[in-house]
Amino acid sequence: MVRIAGADIPDNKKIAFSLRYIYGVGPRRAEEIVESSGIDPNRRVHELTEQEMARLREAIDRGGYLIEGDLRREIAMNIRRLIEIGSYRGTRHRQGLPVRGQRTRTNARSRKGRKRTVAGRRRVARK
Length: 127
Known about the structure:
Elements: E1 2-4, E2 7-9, H1 15-19, H2 27-37, H3 50-62, H4 68-85, H5 88-95, H6 109-112
Antiparallel strand pairs: 1-2
Helix pairs in contact: 2-3, 4-5
């Protein structure tokens, strides 16, 4: 594993695919980074020399991308701001419910967590 921008990227994959292991780098941005560093996109990470690794790191720094910790901090600050101003989206974040208008009667399990049974009223059996 090679460490770039505070993230471990796999050795045995092509450069553009390995860069996607960095939080905030997707397919398009990975291609931009490889292109701006001037490295052949078909090469694998373990084939790169130290100079090429340095060029990759420099391309990421020069690009001005928000990645890893900075991006996570920015997202957390945005959510905190929404909660503080009391917006609808902020209240949904606070309650742990879907934020973007999805239904909650069914299919909100990834946001709401595991299903918990709630005790209901018991009916008395009639004779």
